[in-house]
Design a protein that fits this description.
Layout (H helix, E strand, L loop, with lengths): L2 E8 L3 E4 H8 L7 E4 L6 H15 L6 E6 L10 H7 L7 E6 L4 H12 L2 E6 L8 H5 L3 E8 L6 E10 L5 E2 L8 E2 L2 H22 L7 E5 L3 H10 L15 H10 L7 E7 L2 E9 L12 H5 L3 E2 L2 H7 L18 H6 L1 H6 L1 E5 L5 E2 L15 E5 L5 E9 L9 E8 L4 E7 L11 E12 L2 E10 L11 H4 E3 L1
Parallel strand pairs: 2-14, 4-5, 4-6, 11-12, 18-23, 20-22
Antiparallel strand pairs: 1-7, 2-3, 6-7, 8-13, 9-10, 12-13, 15-16, 15-17, 18-19, 18-21, 19-20, 21-22
Length: 470
């Protein structure tokens, strides 16, 4: 038997205020804000963020990696292999995609559970302007690690699944947004199935009721009616998030569940999947470092017009500059460790860290005396920076920073999710796996700096003097 031994979530920082959507389009936009992936984020990059956070807190080498998404960055190419490379997992670790529907997440769950592996669930939910998918959706990722029962934070007590062919939601290949029948149609089919699944799975677990109930579904009517059928039920904390939906709902409960409590997890999508889990004594000290609610509270607003541009619904004048060259396969293969896991080299003679990796030491001149070192989980500080208001960016201005990494190493990186006022000399930064650009249908993935906290200027030191603005 295997059990859940660790989990971690990732929610992008940008927030779309629904009131602005309503006022812009002259419709009822709703209350609150939608969690929005940035222009340089996709399901792969968010999956890396969630999985990397999990493995930093719970170092492990999973035997397999299963990646589930309804919005894969590639077809005809495994997206899981990019996540595998970014995590610097060994070649023997099996990595594969399971994609196409929200229910793909349970295929990833089952595969990772069987293989004592890692399930990574991530999605960018896109809907037409003013649609329910735009209003009620959310972007995010979750990683779940399975292992031995003695390491469990949550034991799997019972698990049941029922399949049903139901044309409730669909999206043809190549379409940016999907379609859905009137929600009442799916509700009438799903609600009896949910009730049956709950009763049968609780009976298999020898329980009359669970301490926590999570119900997720692409159908908004199911989410609304579940509150009447299951008292105290909770749903996905960010709205429907595709393949990440049930994992984010589970993570939000694990963030505060006490040891020995039971969780009934129900997902109504192309049938119904039901799981009963029981938390262990380890849950109190093995929760993720940043809770779902904590990540929800850490947001920055994005204008609606900018969001529409990011998603391709608003076509703006392109830059009058040459298009970037398409990344080529051979050089990408030669520099996989550098591009995907930010692996440099450390000289054995003098300890100097080279970014990118080098054969000849810049400090002592020794040749072929290097050891690899991944800095993907490292932190550092800004040595200097520049704010570029002339170059094209989907989210101007573009900010570049020279980063001095703790323990050695210096490199110039683009700064993600930041405004010019966030930068100053000495500001601590970490790394975030992002998409630099897409050219010829090929995504150029690399790492960007991400501000961890704004540090006050030291006496006599001017941030404006250290960082150029043009």
């Amino acid at each position: 038997m295997t059990a859940v031994v660790a989990y971690a979530t990732y929610l992008p920082r940008h927030r779309l205020q629904l009131a602005e959507v309503g006022s812009t389009l002259g419709t009822g936009g709703g209350r609150g804000a939608r969690v929005v992936a940035s222009f340089d984020e996709d399901s792969t990059t968010m999956g890396v963020e969630a999985a990397a956070a999990l493995l930093r807190a719970h170092p492990a080498t999973p035997d397999a990696l299963y990646f589930a998404s309804t919005s894969p960055a590639y077809f005809d190419k495994a997206n899981a292999s990019a996540i595998h490379a970014a995590l610097a997992l060994p070649p023997a670790t099996f990595a594969a995609d399971v994609a196409g529907s929200s229910r793909s997440a349970f295929a990833a769950w089952r595969g990772a559970k069987a293989d004592r592996g890692l399930a990574v669930l991530a999605d960018v939910r896109t809907g037409r302007p003013s649609s329910g998918d735009e209003r009620d959706g959310g972007d995010g990722a979750v990683a779940l690690l399975f292992g031995e029962p003695e390491e469990a934070i949550a034991e799997i007590v019972a698990e049941r699944s029922w399949s049903a062919e139901l044309l409730d939601r669909w999206r043809s290949p190549g379409e940016a947004a999907g379609g859905q029948w009137e929600e009442r149609f799916g509700l009438e089919a799903y609600l009896p199935l949910l009730q049956h699944a709950a009763a049968d799975t609780l009976a298999a677990a020898n329980l009359e009721q669970a301490d926590h109930v999570v119900v997720v579904s692409p159908n908004p009517g199911v989410r609304k009616q579940a509150a009447r059928v299951f008292p105290g039920v909770v749903s996905s904390p960010i709205g429907h998030s595709g393949a990440a939906d049930f994992g984010l709902g589970l993570a939000a409960v694990l963030d505060h569940a006490a040891p020995g409590e039971t969780i009934l997890l129900l997902s109504a999508a192309d049938g119904c999947d039901a799981i009963v889990l029981r938390t262990t004594e380890r849950i109190a000290k093995s929760r993720q470092e940043r809770t779902v609610s904590g990540q929800l509270g850490d947001g920055i607003d994005v204008p609606y017009a900018t969001y529409l541009t990011w998603r391709g619904w608003l076509e703006r004048e392109p830059p009058r500059r040459p298009e970037p060259d398409r990344p080529a396969g051979p050089p990408s293969a030669r520099s996989t460790a550098w591009k995907f896991s930010f692996t440099g080299s450390v000289c054995r003679q003098c300890g100097f860290t080279h970014l990118p990796p080098m054969r000849v030491c810049k400090k002592c001149g020794s040749v072929d005396g290097m050891d690899p070192r991944s800095l993907a989980s490292s932190t550092g500080t800004v040595a200097t920076y520049t704010v570029d208001r002339l170059t094209y960016s989907p989210s101007p201005p573009l900010i570049d920073a020279v980063v001095d990494f703790d323990g050695g190493g210096r490199y110039t990186l683009e700064v993600a999710d930041a405004q010019p006022d966030d930068l100053a000399v000495g500001v601590p930064v970490g790394l975030s796996f992002r998409r630099l650009f897409t050219a010829g249908g090929v995504h150029n993935y690399f790492w960007k700096a991400r501000v961890l906290g704004v540090q006050q200027e030291q006496p006599g030191e001017s941030a404006a003097a250290a960082g150029g603005v043009r």
